[in-house]
């Protein structure tokens, strides 16, 4: 049996054991609160809410069903979300109007400020998840751990390079097995560094007059499905792969309430989400993202990291990071509190320590 097949079997085994159930989460975090919403109810309510907010631009029932299918484990009938935590600030009046995780956790700023480019692979889930794992482990250790965790490992053990992303496999692998260190392509750092260099992602969608070829085009690179590593691929790295792993205590989805999302970020660190991607995403926006007339739909999920929030010219925004090196510093802003392009629909993250046991 191939390494990828073994990992998929491992993940499915843990799914059948109910690793995403409210009961399992409450065993680890008895003081947190969770709610379960049926997939059918979620889709119906989301379409209604987007219509009321004027944000149902191109969002259909079929799109929501596909987004949920990619996010949840096979056969899941409910979406479990974290809705309460005693460490959260309960008084909105005491909550900051702006927040930047890079400023709040200065010792971890070099990690929080970075998301690795995914190269030519068709999934950026692993790049964002690896980045969030790195951020949150640094925060958990009070800034004493500053290494990047391995996108390459998640690509081989929790995903495939040649197919559309299914984020739940990578989160389960990070929780049940753990992820070793792994620097960026060519860095020579960590246990399992990333295979691919950054590339120009606009080449995937390029038409006449669309995009700027400032980097090597992704379509010029050979893509293949990677094996799940059984040892460090960096021969100069001194620690064994198994001793190098960092394992999440749990992974979970967040409430769609933007106050709860801000609480989670300010308490524990950045979170992962995705947006419906249109051609106006191919170039870094100037200011806060706004819907452009006649924009063209490209893909269902563009995965990004949220590191903070703020307000500009009366518009509330999320402070986000893209994975594309062609964007420069990768930081950009998206409207907050209106579920812009489904940014607040299925946010996910994980924790490294069971603080309540």
In short:
This protein is of the alpha+beta class and 357 residues long. Helices cover 29% and strands 17% of the residues.
Summary tags:
357 residues; alpha+beta; 4-stranded mixed β-sheet; disordered N terminus; 9 strands; globular; 29% helix
Description:
With 357 residues, this protein is α+β, with helices and mostly antiparallel strands. Mean pLDDT is 88; it is low at 1-19. It is built from 11 helices and 9 strands. It has helices at 3-16, 22-28, 39-53, 61-71, 101-104, 109-112, 125-140, 151-157, 167-176, 241-244, 258-268; strands at 33-38, 78-84, 99-100, 250-254, 271-278, 297-312, 315-321, 331-335, 348-351.
Structural class by secondary-structure content? alpha+beta
For the largest beta-sheet, the strand count, sense and barrel status come to: 5 strands, antiparallel
H/I helix tally = 11
> Would you tell me the overall average pLDDT?
88
In percent terms, what proportion of residues is strand? 15-25%
Number of strands: 9
First and last CA, distance = 38 Å
GO molecular function: cysteine-type peptidase activity
Domain Peptidase C1A papain C-terminal: 95-351
Organism: Bemisia tabaci (Sweetpotato whitefly)
Keywords: Signal
């Amino acid at each position: 049996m191939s390494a990828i097949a073994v990992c998929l079997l491992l993940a499915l085994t843990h799914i059948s054991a109910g690793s995403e159930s409210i009961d399992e989460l409450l065993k680890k975090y008895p003081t947190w609160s969770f709610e379960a919403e049926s997939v059918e109810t979620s889709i119906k309510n989301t379409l209604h809410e987007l219509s009321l907010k004027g944000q149902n631009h191109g969002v259909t029932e079929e799109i929501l069903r596909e987004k949920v299918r990619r996010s949840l484990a096979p056969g899941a009938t409910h979406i479990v979300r974290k809705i309460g935590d005693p460490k959260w600030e309960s008084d909105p009046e005491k909550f900051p109007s702006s927040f930047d995780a890079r400023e709040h956790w200065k010792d971890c700023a070099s990690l929080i400020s970075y998301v690795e480019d995914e190269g030519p692979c068709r999934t950026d889930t692993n790049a964002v998840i690896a980045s969030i794992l790195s951020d949150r482990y640094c925060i958990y250790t009070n800034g004493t751990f500053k290494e990047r965790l391995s996108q390459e490992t998640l690509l081989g053990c929790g995903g495939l390079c040649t197919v559309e992303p299914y984020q739940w496999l990578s989160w389960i692998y990070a929780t049940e097995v753990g992820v070793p260190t792994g620097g960026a392509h060519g860095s020579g750092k960590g246990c399992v560094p990333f295979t691919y260099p950054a590339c120009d992602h606009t080449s995937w969608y390029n038409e006449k007059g669309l995009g700027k070829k400032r980097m090597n085009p992704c379509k010029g690179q050979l893509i293949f499905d990677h094996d799940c590593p059984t040892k460090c691929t960096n021969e100069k790295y001194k620690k064994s792969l198994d001793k190098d792993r960092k394992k999440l205590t749990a992974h979970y989805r967040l409430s769609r309430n933007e106050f709860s999302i801000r609480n989670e970020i300010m308490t524990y660190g950045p979170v992962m989400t995705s947006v419906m991607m249109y051609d106006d995403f191919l170039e870094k926006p100037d200011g806060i993202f706004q819907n452009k007339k006649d924009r063209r739909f490209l893909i269902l999920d563009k995965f990004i990291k949220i590191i903070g929030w703020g307000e500009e010219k009366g518009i509330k925004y999320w402070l986000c990071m893209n994975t594309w090196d062609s964007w420069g510093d990768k930081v950009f802003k998206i409207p907050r509190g209106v579920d812009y392009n489904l940014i607040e629909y299925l946010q996910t993250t994980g924790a490294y320590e069971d603080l309540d046991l």
